[in-house]
Structures are given as structure tokens and as C-alpha cells.
Give the backbone structure.
Amino acid sequence: MYKRTILCLLIVGVLPAVAAEVDQHVMVTADVEGFAIEQVFESGDIVPVTLYVTSEGGAAIFGVDLDVAVTTDDVRIHSVTAHPAFSRTLGRPQAELPGPRYHVVCVQPLRSIDRTLGADGEAIPFVTLELEMLEDAHFESALQVHAACALVGVVPKTTTVLGIESAGCTSQCGKIEIINARPALEPDAAEPESAPWIYESAALAIEVQPVDGDRPVSVLAPNTTYQLHYHADCRYVDGYVLSVIAASADQGLTDVTAPAVGEWALLGNPTFVDIEAESGELVPAQGYPQGCLRTHVIPNQARPGASHPGAQGHLCNFTTGSAGVLNLELYMDWFDRDRSRFVEMWAQAQLLVQEPATE
């Protein structure tokens, strides 16, 4: 799940760095004892579940990328309420509520960051979920919790979600069992056991094309609009986060818009976050040569309740800034509920923006 942590890097990269331990460890826990809810439910019962986040080191919690889902039709997510400190949402929350699944990226406002929030072991109730029970008879379900956390100026070495620890810098998934303790049906009449959720990664490729052509290009002209196309090695996609890295803000992008036609055109224009305008400064982009800065972040999610966009197509249009080296990072995901899979993809392209040669 390395790429999910990369998504958090894209977000936290807008912040000035602060001192933090190298072995920073973040924990996501719940107020549910033993991570299991077992009692006799009536249809319509509402059960609140609060999730907490804690940073064991000195760096504060900047934001949380949270994906929650129930594993049977016996339970649904009724509502999700974030802690007031995480008042900024990147992109649109994915999926309407009540429903079986909810995905949201909530962060602190850039202009008023609390640099002590969740630091040094303080448990912060970053979100409260209300689970609605939809069945009177016996059932066994679960709430799957997939989370990745961004800190102020550092990415944690490990993350533990509901008692399950990640490996290296990857994020992790845990679950809370939900059991209606009414007597179970006879074995031959019982519902089949639901499959556990599987988290996977898949290949993703991107290419840039002129607006009036269909050939890929890697050398672009300044202040010119191009098309960004993608090809994912999966059946569908749900959403994306596009990140821009350049030597300065004016060498980044000046605009990103939806295509005029196609599946992504129906979503309208994506959110265009100018990092320097939001935070007042840019910081070096990790994993890039010295002098590279993360200048813009563009999140977008598929429309709730509609069909998933296809695995390839015209994602968006973007307009270049001034001449220089332009790097694009694209993160995409797909929540494959039919097969209980969450698929993540990541791709990168380096482009040269230069003035056209004069004859």
C-alpha cells in the first residue's frame, strides 16, 4: 500500500517542516473494546463508533485519508462527522450517505495549523461514524477501516490501524467486527460468509497529448493547454489526485479543467489547489532532486451513485506555466465492491516546457 502513503505525501508537502523523530509512529484506534461490537440489534438501531488518531512523536497530525466500508448489506454507514480541527476536505467525499462505503480526505486548514494536535501520544477523535443496523436476524459483518495519516513535515515510518501495523511506510487496514447476537440460522439456511477485503496495487500509465492531436508529447510549450490521458490496469477507477512538481510556482500549472466530453466531463471542473496561495510558501518535494517544489494538488472523485469511469480515457486538460521541467504525479483508486478489493495505482511523467524553436 505504498502509493496510499504517497498520496499523503502529496498533501503534507505543502507544509513547512518541523522537527520530528525519524521513527515516527501513528496509531488509529477506536472506542470499541476489542474492536468487536456484539449485541442483540433491532433493525434501525444506530451504533456510534469514534476513531482516534495519535502521533507517538513530536509532529502533529495534519490530516487523515480515511476509507471505511461495511462487508454485508445488514449494516450501512449512516453518517460521518469529522473533528472540527480537520475542517478542510480535499476533493469531494466519495459516496453518498447512508451507504455501504465512504471515503474522505480531511485536513487541518493551512492558515491555522495546530502544531500540537495529536502529538506526543495525545489521542484525537478525528471522526465519528454512525452505523445503522438493517437486519433483525442474526448476522456477522465488519467495518473495514483503511487509513493513512499525514504529519506536519514528516511521513510516519509505521502506521497501526485498529491494531494492525504497517510495514515500512505503507498504510494499513483494520476492521471492527459487528455481530447481531440473535440465534443464528441453521447452517444450511445461513447466509454465506462474506469475503475479507483485499488491498492491491495495479499498473497505471499517463501521457500528454495536444488538444488538437492524438499523439503523446513530452516537450510542451509555455502557457499552452494540453490533454492528460490515463490507462489503468483494472476494470474501473473511482477518483484521482494529480500532483505537480516544478522548480517554482510559475513553472507549475496555471489551470486544470474537465474534458469537454466523456465520463470525466460529467463531474465538472476538478478542485485546483494552489499550494503557495493556500500556505504562503512552498517546500521541497521529497523524492525529487534539490530545488523541486510541490506547487499544485488537484483532487477529484467520481460522482456518487453513478457508474465508475472506465480504466482509460481523457482525464483532464491542464495549462502550462513558464518554461522549465514539469513533473506530474497521478494517484488513482478503485473500490471493487463485487470482489471485495480496493485497488490503488500511481504513475509519474517528467515533461520539458520550453519556448518553440524559431526559424
Summary: Residues 2 and 170 are 5 Å apart (CA to CA).
